[in-house]
C-alpha cells in the first residue's frame, strides 16, 4: 500500500469493493478500469480538466454541477440520453467525479441505464468521501422531499483522493464534518483531532461494516441516518441554504435533546451531542426564519417513518437505534426549546 493511503473493504460478496483513501489516489483510475475490463467510459465530472483524471480509455466527458439544484430526475434522464448517444453498453462504465450530489445523480443514472452499468466514484468533497459515495445508495430529490427517488447500486470502486480537499472553500470543507461528528454516537467516537485521512477511513470503515450487515436499510443501516431526519427537513425548508452536513450537525444536537425528552438518555449525554458538534466547528442552533410546523411537515416525508408519529434514530441505553412513533407534540416541544440563530 502507498504511504499515507488507507484501504477499506465493503464486504458484499461478489459485489464487494475497495474504498481507497489518500493523496493522489485518483491517478489509479486507469488501473481500476483495466481490472474491470472496461474499454469505454462516460465521465460525469463537476471538476475542471486538471482535476479530472484521464481514465486511460475512450471517454465521453459530461460536465456536471455540484449542488442540489441538479439532483433531479431531469438531470438523470439527460445523463442517460448522453450515454445512449455515445453508445455506452453494459460492458462499459460510468465514472463520477464530484461531490455527493454528482455521485448520487451519476450513480442513479448508472443504475438505471441498461438496468445497470458499473460505476466508479471519485468523490471530491469531504462530505462525499466520508459518506455519500460509499454504500450504494443513489437518489435524487423531489419537491416533496430529499432522496425520495433512488436505487441501491454499489460502485465497483471508490477513490477518495484527499488532494481534492485542498480545493474546497472553508464552508464546504466544514460541511463534511457534520457526518464525521455524528459518527461519535453510532460507533466511531474519538475522531476529533485525527489526521483527515484517518477520520475519513474510520468513518468509511464504520459505514462499510453497517452496509455489509444491512445493505438494504431494513435494520442496522438506519444508524447512518443519525441526525438526518431534522437535517433533511432543514435543507428543504431553507431552500438548501443550510447544507447537508450543516443540517446533520444541527440534527445531531436535536437528536440528543429529543432522546433526553423521551427519557432515553440523561442530561450529560444530551449535552455531549452539542459539545461534540461544537468541537468540530459546526452550527448547533436552528436557523432563523424557519417555522417548527414547516420542519415537522418535511419530517413526515422521511423514508424511515411508518405508521403514526415520526421516526428518528436516537441514542439510548443500548446505544443508537431507530425509534418509530415519536409524537409530533414532543418533537414540536423540543424544537421550540432549541436555541435559534439571530435573523
Count of individual beta strands: 11
β content, as a range? 15-25%
| CATH class type of the largest domain | Alpha Beta
Specify the structural class.
alpha/beta
Largest sheet: 7 strands, mixed
User: If you average the pLDDT, what whole number results?
Assistant: 95
Helix content: 25-40%
In DSSP terms, counting alpha (H) and pi (I) runs of 4 or more, how many helices? Answer: 11
Strand order of the largest sheet: 1-2-9-6-5-3-4
- Global shape: globular
Give me the CATH fold name of the largest domain. Rossmann fold
Domain unit count: 2
Could you list the spans in which at least 5 consecutive residues all have pLDDT below 50?
none
CATH level-two architecture of the largest domain: 3-Layer(aba) Sandwich
Radius of gyration: 20 Å
Listing every helix as H and every strand as E from the N terminus to the C terminus, the arrangement reads EEHEEHEHEHEEEHHHHHHEEH
